[in-house]
Specification:
The chain has 467 residues and is α/β, with parallel strands linked by helices. It contains 13 helices and 22 strands.
């Protein structure tokens, strides 16, 4: 078979690229090495973790907030097996949906490991060992990423685990160490802390979610502490040992240089992810990866070989599903000589703890480094009537605007439903709105989104109404 475009990998970047290619009239094939489509995000990443986050937040509310609402419950307990079953059902329904979309758009699906034979031929090795070779004019590499580790850590998937195993544990642990205070560590740490697990996050940097605005990390630390998560920030892990029934982690306190040990039933290694290009046969087409394992691409996401593109976690930029989706559409439209664009500054980042964390644009630290003059407007959710009504007073919205032009340069927030609210910030910044533009737009009352308007009012001559 010969195709106009073949995509290797069916995660959010890959399957979205395939759909857009098909919509544009290109004969399209997609190769997926696993039995189900959807990649890491749908199978063992974004979707299953959000399912567990929602389930455990419901349980936490039932045991900690319902009484205050006048809802008396007794005998509340966790059916962990059912919780995991529901998560699996969510995953199956979503992956089945992707399979349906492939059929709807007449995209040919190949199950097996795809690897380059040469520039225009890709072999697909199936689970039974048989191979099939397909011919293609263009190729989009969308093979995603795998969990990272450290050279001295042996991930045995029984006691020393990654996020993949953390989503499928056989029981609720009594205790868990989480190495890494980034998005994955904070989210999965939240899941188990709400269920009663004694969770300790060990983070090398002095703050959580270090890539985001510093104030967000400090506020998230306060919120996670309220559900019992302990923090060992500024600690560099030096050893991890599986003791059979427990794991011992040794770390160095960066401030005192003293060695500290931690012990728990499980150790979750959540220090990030690495591009996955294993067995792809890049050498067969004259491609190589950089010192971080990424495939170099130009401004059109084309590799050094004409007609071979790469998107998502295997190229530069944030490892985010929605970033990969944007790149998938971008490449599809580039192939048919349209003129798409992506503003990477305006791809939002989200942490799905509760309260949620989300941000887009420049951080305050970045603006200081640039020497750019800016003004700040903040509004706390404790001043929001809607947040008081829902018992979600933690967090704030922070708006950064240019001191001279008032153009919004960044919006950083932690609070209820922020993962959804951040879309307003993205739209505003795509149209280069000023803080006053948002301040003069009506926001329904009472809503969480009023906090965005109030923060913009605060950035506009300190005009916030409700603080």
């Amino acid at each position: 078979m010969k195709y106009d475009v073949t995509i290797i990998g069916s995660g959010p970047g890959g399957y979205v690229a395939a759909i857009r290619c098909a919509q544009l009239g290109l004969k399209t094939a997609i190769i997926e090495r696993y039995a189900t489509l959807g990649g890491t995000c749908l199978n063992v990443g974004c979707l299953p973790s959000k399912a567990l986050l929602d389930s455990t937040e419901h349980y936490h509310q039932a045991t900690h907030q319902f009484a205050e609402h006048g809802i008396q419950v007794s005998g509340v307990s966790v059916d962990f097996e059912q919780m995991v079953r529901r998560k699996n059902q969510v995953v199956k329904q979503t992956c089945d949906g992707v399979a349906f979309l492939m059929k709807k758009n007449k995209i040919t699906v190949y199950n097996g490991h795809g690897a380059f034979v040469d520039r225009n031929h890709i072999s697909v090795t199936k689970t039974d060992g048989s191979t099939e070779t397909i011919e293609t004019d263009k190729v989009i590499i969308a093979t995603g990423s795998k969990p990272s580790s450290l050279p001295f850590i042996s991930i045995d998937k029984t006691r020393v685990i990654t996020s993949t195993e953390a989503l499928q544990l056989p029981h609720i642990p009594q205790s868990m160490l989480v190495i890494g205070g980034g998005v994955i560590g904070c989210e999965l740490g939240s899941v188990y802390a709400r269920l009663g697990t004694k969770v300790t996050i060990i983070e090398y940097m002095p703050a959580l979610i270090g890539a985001m605005d510093a104030e967000l990390g400090r506020e998230l630390q306060k919120s996670l502490s309220k559900i019992g998560i302990q923090m060992a920030l500024g600690h560099g892990v030096t050893a991890v040992e599986n003791k059979g029934e427990s794991v011992v982690v040794t770390a160095t306190n960066q401030s005192t240089q003293q060695s500290v040990t931690f012990e728990a039933e499980y150790c979750l290694v959540a220090i990030g992810r690495r591009p996955y290009t294993d067995g792809l046969g890049l050498d067969k087409v004259g491609l190589s990866v950089d010192n971080r394992g990424r495939i170099p691409v130009d401004d059109h996401l084309q590799t050094a070989v004409e007609g071979i593109y790469a998107i998502g976690d295997v190229v530069r930029g944030a490892m985010l599903a929605h970033k990969a989706e944007e790149e998938g559409v971008f490449v599809a439209e580039t192939i048919v000589q349209q003129k798409p664009h992506i503003n990477y500054l305006l791809i939002p980042g989200v942490v799905y703890t509760w309260p949620e964390v989300a941000a887009v644009g420049h951080t305050e630290e970045e603006l200081k480094q640039q020497g750019r003059k800016y003004k700040v407007g903040k509004f706390p959710f404790k001043a929001s009537g809607r947040a008081r009504a829902s018992m979600d007073p933690d967090g704030f919205v922070k708006v950064l605007a240019d001191a001279a032009t008032d153009e919004i340069l960044g919006i950083h927030a932690i609070g209820p439903r922020i993962a959804d609210i951040i879309a307003e910030a993205v739209v505003a910044m795509e149209y280069r709105a000023s803080a006053e533009d948002i301040a003069r737009m009506s926001h329904a009352h009472p809503t969480f989104t009023e906090a965005v308007r109030e923060a913009c009012l605060a950035a506009t001559d300190n005009r916030a109404i409700h603080i």
